[in-house]
Amino acid sequence: MFIKILMLVVFFAVMVYVGFWSARKTKSVNDYVLGGRTIGPWLTAFAFGTSYFSAVVFIGYAGQFGWKYGLSSTWIGLGNAFIGSLLAWLVLGRRTRVMTQKIEARTMPEFFGKRFDSRQLQIAGSVIAFIFLVPYTASLYNGLSRLFGMAFTIDYKVSIIIMALLTGVYVVAGGYTATAMNDFIQGIIMLFGICAVIVAVLNGQGGFLQAIGNLAVISADDVAAPALKGAPGLLISFFGPDPLNLLGVVILTSLGTWGLPQMVHKFYTIKDEKAIYTGTIVSTFFAIVIAGGCYFLGGFGRLFDSPAIYSENGAIQYDSIVPQMLSTLPDILIGIVVVLVLSASMSTLSSLVLTSSSTLTIDVLKETVMKDMDEKKQLLIMRVLIAVFIVVSVVLALNPPTFIAQLMGISWGALAGAFLAPFLYGLYWKKTTREAVWASYICGVGLTVANMFLKFIKSPINAGAVTMIAGLVIVPIVSLLTPKLKESFVDEIFSCYDEKVEVKKSHSLEQ
Fold first, then answer.
1. With contact defined as beta carbons under 8 Å apart, do 63 and 301 qualify?
2. Do residues 287 and 54 touch, judged by C-beta distance below 8 A?
3. In the chain, what are the domain boundaries?
């Protein structure tokens, strides 16, 4: 217990120190929200990766989908790496950085407002972002608190409040610079931690081959994976017992990052071309190790079947599967796991609260009731709103309505369903219209909310995937049928891509 507590104390001390150190470099709104657009390649790459993966993945998704799909759940991690990270950087990275600097956008709603010349779009986007980031934040607390309960027997409510307070301290003090620097430290911990945990868990099962052999003979009859009934071997098969639903999870968790404000925001802060090149490689490698490792580990969840993962009525408590897998590890490894998941969760939480507060301040208050706010007042209000957002999410987390995966599915479905398509088309296609953005907002939020009550798509995960795909279809159709923006206005925005720059011959052979 002493070792575990010592590791946590050191971890918290470093995080808080970085927050106050970064505060000295934060003099303006751009510094606070974007790090002055001077964040280097490694910090940017780790900020992207650590914001992507949290307790939601390690505790919620790895447990639930590893139980349902076995080792084929590793495809989710690979999808996260190559679609959610590699392709996201290649398709969005450079264009996002160039256009957002051209139109001076600091948030995703502000991008919509300036790209489509509509204050209403900006305000509506901000409201959507704020509302649907709350359940995502609650899911972070939920997953982390279960792990704390296993490691320290600490009450659920206490662990939530401790995490919220400590994250709030360094984000309020240092803004994005503190978040990026802490993300780098947390990312290093996550890389080494996940490797150590996988090795330890498999060794506890007699090694990799023995664990595979034990998994291969499992034939179960449960609601989670009905295809396993009388069919041993499916848990180690290439596509698992339920390929279609597995594909839905891959789409939501991979393509979804393209439309999440806290993820796309990382591209706004890129310093230079080198940051894009390095960021693409590092963030993809990070995702392969972290996401691939988490889902691979979760694939062995059925080897740890015990009464501890079932509720009184016999239902499977998916959020208890991974903690059960880890409960037999030595104390030193449990301490590493706690710091690992704490790192993942705090990095994501800091990104979420910073995104929410900056969005409300810049996109709502400054655009409506406080148009004359100076830089100093904007910084103060952002810091106050970070505290408000944390309090609201804590209240929700104290009585979470459903499993972690479902909370995240609702949040990602609404946000990515509303924002992904208009953001992507807005970067590449001049003919995208205001009405198409409104249509995407309505589709993403409308489908998500309707499905919460009507359940016409049983899984919130699959519902989220449907909203994203629907947006990608709806935006071009509506754009072709509605009035275009003034040509000169759009041409001026897109002129940023045509500006000539000089580069060294080490980067290009062009004369």
1. yes
2. no
3. 2-400
Task: Specify whether the CB–CB gap between 222 and 64 falls below 8 A.
Answer: no
Residue among 114, 85, 42, 459 at smallest CA distance from 275: 42
CATH architecture of 2-400: Up-down Bundle (1.20)
Distance between CA atoms of residues 231 and 220, nearest Å: 8
pLDDT per residue over 49-96, tens digit each? 877 877 678 777 888 899 888 899 999 999 999 999 999 999 999 999
Range with the largest mean pLDDT of 158-162, 311-315, 339-343, 448-452: 448-452
Backbone torsion region of residue 485, taken as left when φ is above 0, otherwise alpha when ψ lies between -120 and 50, otherwise beta: beta
H or E stretch at 282:
helix 273-298
pLDDT classification of 46: cutoffs 50, 70, 90? confident
Contact 332, 3 (CB under 8 A): yes
Q: Out of 162-171, 402-411, 452-461, 496-505, which region has the weakest mean confidence (pLDDT)?
A: 402-411
Is the Cβ–Cβ distance between 344 and 194 less than 8 Å?
no
Biggest alpha carbon–alpha carbon distance for the chain: 73
- Count CB atoms within 10 A of the CB of residue 45: 28
CA dihedral (383, 389, 391, 394) positive or negative? negative
Predicted confidence (pLDDT) per residue in 93-107, tens digit: 999 999 999 998 888
Burial (0-12, 13-18, 19+ Cβ within 10 Å), 453: exposed
* 3-class DSSP assignment, residue 310: strand
Residue 53: the pLDDT is 79
How confident is the model at residue 299, as a pLDDT?
Answer: 92
In the chain, count H helices and then E strands. 22, 0
List C-alpha distances in Å: 193 to 167, 207, 503: 21, 18, 40
Nearest to 141 by CA among 161, 155, 171: 161
Torsion sign (Cα): 413, 419, 420, 422: positive
